[in-house]
Write a structure and sequence with these properties.
Elements: E1 9-15, E2 27-35, E3 41-48, E4 57-63, E5 71-77, E6 86-95, E7 101-109, E8 128-135, E9 146-147, E10 156-158, E11 163-164, E12 170-176, E13 189-195, E14 206-210, E15 216-225, E16 231-239, E17 244-253, E18 264-265, E19 273-277, E20 283-289, E21 295-301, E22 311-315, H1 330-336, E23 343-349, E24 355-363, E25 366-374
Antiparallel strand pairs: 1-25, 2-3, 3-4, 4-5, 6-7, 7-8, 8-9, 10-12, 11-12, 12-13, 13-14, 15-16, 16-17, 17-18, 19-20, 20-21, 21-22, 23-24, 24-25
Length: 376
């Protein structure tokens, strides 16, 4: 393996708006960290009375000092949406090639707030929606949300911010789920849809990873574009037959997302993994590890094949609920996911060359957003 001898944590801080959050804002999770062309950092994350409560909303903050301080921007994105009780679960801000800002939001129908997110028997998901809002005047005011048309795919679940490509296009990733009461086998697909007009319209979806047999699930893709133009995506990979997780998998595109390589393992244990393309052409990756010892980790690769020694950006010392154990049925496993109290890392490279990583972690009986600056 390559060496990460020079990595170290310069600082790790909690992102707070006030010392005593309101009862509906005690749990912060699912951060999405992006960077505008003027190096402004934008952090969007979910807040709610619990990690999976029906009152979830998305808050946007920005930083002009490499994430040392943060300012709330505009109004929180919350339900109802067009008359439907909505839990806003995740959002992210992307700057288009024409300077417009796009806010994508994944929201869930919580008409019945007592229903679990996943049906415990069918494994179907409550109705979910992938939508975008546009701003031509900065971060403080976005237009109304409008759906992204991903037909014929259904139940499109957001898997991160839209990616602005070097050719000026946008690539939005999502994954498909079953409807809530559908008893048929789950045929999961990870997909992307492309826009060539700054998010006004979207091309038919392209499947980038799927197992036609339904045995393997390539969950929660995260995508990035390297300095040489190649696009990479990582997957949290689950084997339904073994009832266990496989190592993180990777795919590549060399034609701006129109076609993709076959998924393959990179040999690293972990779940959601976020690619951070570096200015010098290398690729960094941050991911959540729920195997012992549980942690948020970083590694660097020159080619996406061989990875440097794993560096721990956050050591989870609180109670840990592990990954798929080979015994728990998939339906039951989907329910335990709601109990996890740390994870979902993402990151950017700062102008000075260091990395800034955002993730959620425990804060007493609640959860909070943490950011960590790591030297390379």
């Amino acid at each position: 393996m390559l060496s990460n001898l020079f990595m170290k944590i310069l600082r790790q801080t909690i992102v707070n708006d006030r010392s005593l959050p309101s009862p509906t804002e005690t749990h912060s999770c699912f951060p999405v960290l992006t960077q505008l062309r003027d190096n402004t950092l934008v952090l969007a994350n979910r807040l709610g009375s619990t990690k999976e409560s029906a009152d979830g909303k998305v808050r946007i903050r920005s930083s002009r000092d490499d994430g040392k301080t943060w300012q709330c921007r505009g109004q929180d994105v919350s339900g109802p949406i067009r008359g439907t009780a909505a839990e806003c679960r995740m959002g992210g801000v992307t700057e288009c090639a024409n300077g417009d800002l796009l806010l994508n939001v994944g929201w869930m129908d919580r008409t019945d707030p007592k229903l679990p997110m996943f049906h415990p028997e069918t494994e179907g998901l409550l109705p979910v929606h992938l939508e975008i809002a546009r701003s031509r005047n900065g971060l403080d005011r976005f237009d109304a949300l409008t759906p992204i048309d991903v037909s014929p795919k259904i139940q499109a679940c957001i898997t991160g911010p839209a990616l602005r490509l070097k050719d000026g296009g946008l690539l939005q990733g999502f994954e498909t789920n079953k409807t809530y009461l559908d008893k048929r086998p789950w045929r999961h697909e990870s997909c992307v849809t492309r826009s060539e007009d700054h998010g006004k319209t979207w091309k038919p979806p392209v499947v980038i990873a799927a197992d036609p047999s339904g045995r393997l699930f390539f969950w929660d893709q995260r995508i990035g574009q390297l300095a040489d133009g190649r696009i990479v995506a990582f997957f949290w990979t689950y084997d339904r037959e073994k009832k266990a997780e496989l190592p993180i998998h990777i795919v590549w595109s060399e034609d701006n997302g129109h076609s993709w390589s076959v998924p393959r393992s990179i040999g690293i244990e972990g779940q959601i993994a976020w690619p951070i393309p570096l200015a010098d052409g290398r690729l960094a990756m941050t991911w959540v590890r729920r195997h012992e010892p549980p942690s948020i980790r970083l590694a660097i690769s020159k080619d996406g094949q061989a990875w440097a020694d794993e560096f721990t950006a956050y050591d989870h010392r609180a109670e840990n609920i592990g990954p798929g154990d080979g015994k728990t049925a998939t339906g039951e496993y989907l329910q335990t996911m709601q109990l996890w109290n740390f994870g979902l890392p993402g990151g950017v490279q700062l102008p000075g060359g260091n990395l800034l990583i955002a993730f959620y972690a425990p804060a007493g009986k609640s959860t909070c957003i943490r950011v960590a600056e790591v030297t390379l």
